[in-house]
Automatic annotation (TrEMBL):
Keywords: Cell membrane, Membrane, Transmembrane, Transmembrane helix. Its main location: membrane. It is a multi-pass membrane protein. Residues 266-379, 724-831 form the ABC3 transporter permease C-terminal domain. It comes from the Bacteria. This is Putative ABC transport system permease protein. The keyword Membrane applies. The keyword DNA-binding does not apply. One of its GO terms (cellular component) is plasma membrane. It comes from Lutimaribacter pacificus. Signal peptide: none annotated.
C-alpha cells in the first residue's frame, strides 16, 4: 500500500518537469556514454578481428618454427591436411645502398615468400603490378617491394639497387598494403618483401641465425580447427611448433585492444565517479527545495518509509532517463564516427549495436546512481517535520542509519567487483578504486580544512572587504567549498595522475634509458666472425664497453615434466620463444641470489640459471626441471641457481642461461652490445657492416623512438579519457555554482544595501572562486602525484619524478575553471534590484 501511494506522489511531482536536474542527467549520461562508446569500439574491433581472422593470419591456420624450416614429415602433414600451403620467413636485416661512394643503411623487417603467398587477400603495390612480377626483378637481379618509409629514407627510386646480406636486389615497387600485416606484431623496422629463393646466397638464413618460418594453411571449408590443432601438437609435440588459426588471427592485436579498452573503461568509470559527486549534490539540492512538501507529508501522517520511497522512485526514474540518454549517445557516437575510425584504425572493425557494452555501461550507471543518491535520500528518513520547518533541513545527523551506510558500502563493493569482472584486470581495478577512494577522502578532508583556514584567515584580511567577504562565504555553513573541491578536485586528480604517469613513461623511455643503454645491438654474428668483430670493437678508444654472448632461441615446453602452462599459467616467459645463452664461467657482474653456478669444466646433465624475479613470479624453486625446445630438440635441465637480471637498461639480459656443454653443439650465432661515443657510432657501423654483411645492427635510439611512438598513442587515448572525466567535473562545478545562485543573489542584495559597489562584490565573487580553485588544484595535484607514483612504482615498475609543467598546469586549470564558472553566475546577482530580493525573502 505504501509503495503504491509513494508511486502516485512521485508521478505527480515529476509532472512539474525536471528543472534543476539537468546537471544530474548530464553527469550520469556523460559517464555512461563514455563507457558505452569505449566498449562499443572494442567490441567492433573484436568482431572485425574474428570476421577477418583468416585474412589477418594469412590463412586458415599457421604453423611457426624458430631457426629452421619445416622437416619433411611436417611438410608432408601440411600438404595432406591443407588445400594449399604458403611458406613465409621473417627476420631483421640491414638494407644497404651504395651511391657515389657513400653507403646508406637502414634496419628492415624482411618477409620472404613463396609463389603461393598470399593465400588470402592480395598485396597492393605502387605501381600496381602482381607480386610475382615485382619479386621476379629485372636485369638478372631478384626484385623486392619496400615500405615507402624505408625507400624514402634510403633515397631509393624504382629500379634502384640495394643489398640484403651479400645479395643485390632491385626495387620494383612500394608496398601499399599487406593483407596479413596486422597479425605480424610489433616490428622495429619497415617491411621489405622478397622471394625466399632469392636469399639462398645472401648468408642471412644460415643455421643459428635469428629467423622464423611460418606455414599458412588453406583448409577445407568448415575444417575442425581445434581438432587439427590438437593433432598437430600431438604429432609434433617435441619440435617447438607454435600454432595459430583463424579463431584468433592477430592475438597480439586482440590482447592489446582488450587491455587498452579495459583501462579506458576504468578511466571512464573514474569519470562516472566524478559525475556521481554531481548527482549527489543535485539530489541534496532537490530535497532541500522539497522541504515544505516533505514537512507537509510528515504532518499529515506520512511514514518515513513512504517519504523515502516517494523520492527514491523520482530519483530512480530520472536516473533511468540519464542512463538511457548515455546509452543512446555512447552507442550512436561510434556509428556516426565509423568512417573516421575505420580510416584511422590499423585493424578491421565492424561497427553496429552491441548489447554487451550497453549492458555493462547500464550496470555501471545504475550502481553509481544508487551509491551517490542513496545517502542523501536516506538522511531524509531521520529528519522530523518540525526540524524541517524550523531550519530548512540543516540539522539532523551527519550520517544516515547504519543500515544505509552498510548498504552503500555493499553497493560500492559490488561496483568494484563488477568492474573487475568486466575488465578482467583485478589488479588495475583495485588500484583505480583505491585511488578514487583515497582522492575522495583527501578532497573531503581538504574541503573541511579550507573552510577552517578561511574562517581563521578572515580576521587577518584587515581592510580588504572583498577578500573578507570571499573568505566568509567559503567558511560559512552550507558553503559551496565541499561541492567545488570534490567535483573539480576529483576530475583534476585523475588528469594529474594520468599526466604524471604519461610523463614518467616517456621519461623512462626517452630520457633514462639513453644514459645507460648501448649504442647498438649486433645480431647474427657467426662464431668464426667473433674474433674479427672483437678486434674492431676492443681496439676502438671511443668504445667504453661491449658485451657479447652466444644466442639461441627456445620454447619452454615443460616444467617438472608438466606442461609449462599448467605450472606458470599465462606468464610472458612461456608465451612464445625466449632468448637462451650458455656460459662456462659465471659472467662478470652476474649476481647469483640463490644456488650456485656450475664448475667451469662441467660436462654433466644440463643445468639452468634462471632470472630470480621471473622465477618467483612463476613459482619456480631450485631443483625444478625445465624442458626447452631448441631447433626442434628437447633439452631438459635442472635449475641450480637464480640470478638478478635487469631488463631496464636495454642491455643484454637472458631469462635463462645453461652450461656450455648443453648447448655449444647446436647451430647458433652470437649477439653483442656496443657502448660508444655518439660521434663514433657511424664509423663502427660502417666498418662492421662492410666486413660482415650478414650482421644486423639495431640502433638502440631508433628502437626507443619506435617504442615512444607506441606510448604516445597510448598516452593520447588515456588523455582523452581523462579529459572526459574533467569535463564531467566541470559540469558538476557548474551545477554547484548554479545551486548557490540564490545565496549569491541574497548576499549581493544585502551588500549593495549596505553600500558595497558592484565592482567590489564582483571582485569578492572572483576571489572566492579563485581561492576554491587554488585549493582544489593543490589537493588534486597532491592526489595525482601520489596516484602517479603508486602506479609507476607498483604497476609499471618504473622510476618516478614529478613532472612539474603538468603539475603547474593542473593548479592553474583549477583556478581558471572555478573562476569562469563563478563569474558566469555572478552577473545575475549583481543585476537584481536589492529591494525586490529582500522583500521576496521576508
Amino acid at each position: 500500500m505504501s509503495l503504491g501511494i509513494a508511486a502516485r506522489f512521485a508521478r505527480r511531482e515529476l509532472r512539474g518537469g525536471i528543472r534543476g536536474f539537468w546537471i544530474f542527467l548530464a553527469c550520469l549520461a556523460l559517464g555512461v556514454a563514455a563507457i558505452t562508446a569505449v566498449g562499443s569500439v572494442r567490441a567492433a574491433i573484436e568482431a572485425g578481428l574474428a570476421r577477418e581472422g583468416a585474412a589477418l593470419l594469412g590463412g586458415d591456420a599457421e604453423m611457426e618454427f624458430t631457426y629452421r624450416f619445416a622437416t619433411d614429415d611436417e611438410r608432408a602433414w601440411m600438404d595432406e591436411t591443407a588445400l594449399a600451403v604458403s611458406e613465409v620467413t621473417d627476420f631483421r636485416s640491414m638494407a644497404v645502398v651504395t651511391r657515389d661512394g657513400a653507403t646508406e643503411r637502414g634496419l628492415t623487417q624482411v618477409k620472404s615468400v613463396d609463389g603461393a603467398y598470399p593465400l588470402i587477400g592480395a598485396v597492393e603495390l605502387e605501381p600496381d603490378m602482381p607480386l610475382g612480377r615485382a619479386l621476379a626483378g629485372q636485369d638478372g637481379l631478384p626484385g623486392a617491394a619496400m615500405d615507402p618509409l624505408l625507400a624514402d629514407r634510403l633515397g631509393l627510386a624504382m629500379g634502384d639497387r640495394f643489398r640484403l646480406g651479400t645479395q643485390d636486389f632491385v626495387l620494383m615497387a612500394r608496398i601499399g598494403r599487406e593483407p596479413d600485416d596486422a597479425g605480424a606484431g610489433f616490428a622495429l623496422g619497415p617491411r621489405t618483401l622478397v622471394a625466399t629463393g632469392a636469399l639462398a646466397g645472401s648468408g642471412l638464413l644460415q643455421p643459428g641465425t635469428l629467423y622464423s618460418t611460418k606455414y599458412r594453411l588453406d583448409l577445407l571449408e568448415g575444417a575442425n580447427l581445434p581438432a587439427l590443432e590438437a593433432e598437430a601438437k600431438a604429432r609434433f609435440a617435441e619440435t617447438g611448433l607454435r600454432w595459430r588459426d583463424a579463431r584468433n588471427g592477430a592475438p597480439g592485436v586482440a590482447e592489446f585492444v582488450d587491455r587498452i579498452g579495459a583501462f579506458l573503461i576504468l578511466v571512464g568509470l573514474s569519470g562516472l565517479a566524478v559525475g556521481g559527486v554531481g548527482v549527489s549534490a543535485a539530489v541534496r539540492a532537490y530535497l532541500a527545495r522539497k522541504t515544505s512538501v516533505i514537512a507537509t507529508l510528515r504532518t499529515l501522517g506520512a511514514e518515513r518509509g513512504m517519504i523515502f520511497q516517494t523520492y527514491f522512485l523520482q530519483i530512480g526514474a530520472l536516473s533511468l532517463l540519464g542512463i538511457a540518454a548515455g546509452l543512446v549517445l555512447g552507442a550512436l557516437a561510434p556509428l556516426a564516427l565509423a568512417p573516421v575510425l575505420l580510416a584511422q584504425l590499423p585493424v578491421p572493425a565492424v561497427f553496429t549495436l552491441y548489447p554487451a557494452p550497453l549492458g555493462e555501461a547500464a550496470v555501471y550507471g545504475a550502481l553509481t546512481a544508487l551509491i551517490f543518491t542513496l545517502w542523501p535520500l536516506a538522511r531524509t528518513e531521520d529528519i522530523r517535520a518540525a526540524t524541517l520547518f524550523r531550519d530548512g533541513g540543516q540539522s539532523g545527523r551527519a550520517l544516515p542509519r547504519p543500515v544505509w551506510v552498510g548498504l552503500t558500502l555493499l553497493l560500492a563493493a559490488a561496483l568494484i567487483g563488477v568492474a573487475a569482472l568486466f575488465s578482467g584486470t583485478w589488479r588495475l581495478t583495485l588500484w583505480t578504486a583505491g585511488g578514487l577512494v583515497f582522492a575522495l577522502a583527501l578532497l573531503a578532508l581538504a574541503a573541511w580544512a579550507i573552510r577552517i583556514a578561511a574562517r581563521r584567515a578572515r580576521g587577518a584580511a584587515g581592510q580588504r572587504p572583498a577578500l573578507r567577504w570571499a573568505l566568509g562565504a567559503i567558511s560559512g555553513r552550507g558553503a559551496e567549498a565541499a561541492s567545488v573541491v570534490l567535483s573539480l578536485g576529483l576530475g583534476l586528480s585523475v588528469l594529474a595522475a594520468v599526466g604524471q604517469i604519461d610523463g614518467n613513461l616517456r621519461g623512462a623511455i626517452a630520457r633514462d634509458l639513453p644514459r645507460q643503454a648501448p649504442s647498438y645491438f649486433f645480431l647474427d654474428i657467426q662464431r668464426d666472425q667473433m674474433p674479427g668483430f672483437l678486434d674492431r670493437i676492443e681496439g676502438d678508444p671511443t668504445v667504453s664497453r661491449s658485451e657479447n654472448a652466444p644466442m639461441l632461441r627456445g620454447i619452454i615446453t615443460r616444467i617438472n615434466d608438466r606442461p609449462a602452462s599448467e605450472v606458470a599459467g599465462e606468464h610472458w616467459v612461456i608465451q612464445g620463444d625466449r632468448g637462451v645463452t650458455y656460459a662456462a664461467t659465471q659472467p662478470k657482474g652476474t649476481k647469483v641470489t640463490a644456488g650456485a653456478w656450475w664448475p667451469e669444466d662441467y660436462t654433466g646433465p644440463p643445468q639452468i640459471s634462471f632470472s630470480a624475479e621471473e622465477a618467483a613470479e612463476m613459482g619456480l624453486r631450485l631443483g625444478d626441471t625445465m624442458t626447452v625446445n631448441i631447433l626442434g630438440r628437447d633439452i631438459t635441465g635442472t635449475i641450480t641457481s637464480f640470478r638478478e637480471v635487469d631488463f631496464s637498461t636495454a642491455g643484454m639480459g637472458f631469462v635463462m642461461a645453461m652450461n656450455e656443454a648443453a648447448l655449444a653443439g647446436a647451430p647458433h650465432s652470437f649477439i653483442a652490445t656496443v657502448y660508444a661515443e655518439p660521434q663514433a657510432e657511424a664509423a663502427i657501423l660502417r666498418d662492421l657492416a662492410n666486413a660482415y654483411p650478414n650482421i644486423t645492427a639495431i640502433r638502440v635510439r631508433d628502437a626507443i623512438d619506435r617504442v615512444s611512438e607506441v606510448l604516445a598513442g597510448l598516452a593520447a587515448a588515456t588523455s582523452w579519457g581523462a579529459a572526459a572525466t574533467l569535463v564531467t567535473g566541470f559540469l558538476v562545478l557548474i551545477g554547484a555554482a548554479a545551486a548557490g545562485d540564490t545565496a549569491r543573489i541574497y548576499e549581493a542584495a544585502v551588500l549593495r544595501t549596505l553600500g558595497a559597489t558592484r565592482s567590489r562584490i564582483l571582485t569578492s565573487f572572483a576571489l572566492r572562486a579563485a581561492l576554491l580553485g587554488l585549493g582544489a588544484g593543490l589537493v588534486a595535484l597532491a592526489a595525482g602525484i601520489a596516484g602517479g607514483w603508486a602506479v609507476s612504482h607498483y604497476v609499471l615498475e618504473t622510476g618516478f619524478t614529478v613532472i612539474w609543467p603538468s603539475a603547474i598546469a593542473i593548479v592553474l586549470g583549477g583556478i581558471l575553471a572555478t573562476l569562469l564558472s563563478g563569474l558566469a553566475f555572478a552577473w545575475r546577482p549583481l543585476a537584481m534590484r536589492p529591494a525586490a530580493v529582500l522583500r521576496a525573502r521576508e
